Amino acid sequence: MAARDSAAKSTSEVNTALSLYKDDLLAVLTVGLKSQASRNVSLSGLNALCLAKGLLSDEEYGYVVHHANELLQGNTKEVDESRSDTK
Questions:
Q1: Which residue, 35, 56, 84, 86, is the most exposed by fewest CB within 10 angstroms?
Q2: What is the widest separation between alpha-carbon atoms in the chain?
Q3: Confidence at residue 40, expressed as pLDDT on a 0 to 100 scale
């Protein structure tokens, strides 16, 4: 029983710590969907945020679904990583 209480407490503490940065994480991970190189990592990160109980609001879930839907429909503009701005 003590182990279960400890696990529940640690999950709550992690969610509290993440909640301070969740807007930044959502922004970075959704931008990461636009690049082929970071797409898998971004999807994994968004999945983890969505699975964290009590972390995201319904509006934030909708934000994630919207960006995932754009990706699946091919409406996202791919970031051209081969182009260099330095000359």
A1: 86
A2: 63
A3: 96
